[in-house]
Design brief:
190 residues, four-stranded mixed beta sheet, three-stranded mixed beta sheet, mainly beta
């Protein structure tokens, strides 16, 4: 039925208008069952699909966002080899992922492995820690680091440093100083 309202029927309340979509409550359990009061009282607590053309607010009134949740939220996938959370943006001008937050003594993002050990943290000041939870630098890594140096790259801004693999046995370090001059040093590997 188009333009249905969602109604919650409290324990023992069978009142319903013809255009209402029922959510029945029995203790702490909620059941969804179309417009049939009897079915709502016995329906299984699984909803296989829900299409909402407007907005949904959980813990808050709906806003201009399609879904807004106020409070702690858990998204969990217990399907083997499945993606727990998948965020996609097909727009060429939008964000892929944006995290806001991180007050004093808190973090903006914390990534943990299945054993709940923190493996990466982003602090409010922008510092990123990999393998540690209290990064002291813009990028602070505990453990071995590997990277593929670029080839023939010139530092762009004053203070930029570039590491370049000149050949199989030579690394070239380039620094653009505050005077705008690029200086380099070569490290020969044996």
């Amino acid at each position: 039925m188009p333009n249905q309202k969602i109604s919650q029927l409290s324990d023992g309340n069978a009142a319903q208008a013809a255009d209402e979509f029922l959510i029945a409550r029995s203790g702490d359990n909620y059941r969804v069952a179309g417009t049939d009061v009897a079915a709502a009282a016995t329906a299984v607590g699984t909803l296989t699909g829900l299409h909402v053309s407007g907005s949904i607010g959980v813990g808050t009134a709906p806003t201009s966002n399609k879904l807004e949740v106020i409070g702690r939220t858990l998204v969990n996938s217990n399907v083997p080899d499945d993606t727990g959370v998948y965020l996609a943006n097909s727009s060429t001008t939008g964000f892929g992922l944006r995290l806001d937050g991180g007050g004093t003594g808190k973090y903006v993002a914390s990534i943990r492995n299945q054993a709940t050990t923190e493996i990466m943290r982003v602090n409010p000041n922008g510092s990123v820690g990999i393998g540690l939870s209290s990064p002291d630098y813009a990028l602070d890594v505990t453990g071995a680091v590997g990277f593929a140096p670029g080839a023939s790259v010139t530092p762009v801004k004053n203070g930029d440093v570039v590491i370049e693999a000149t050949n199989n046995t030579t690394l070239t370090f380039k620094l653009k100083g505050s005077d705008g001059v690029v200086r380099s040093a070569t490290l020969t590997l044996t």
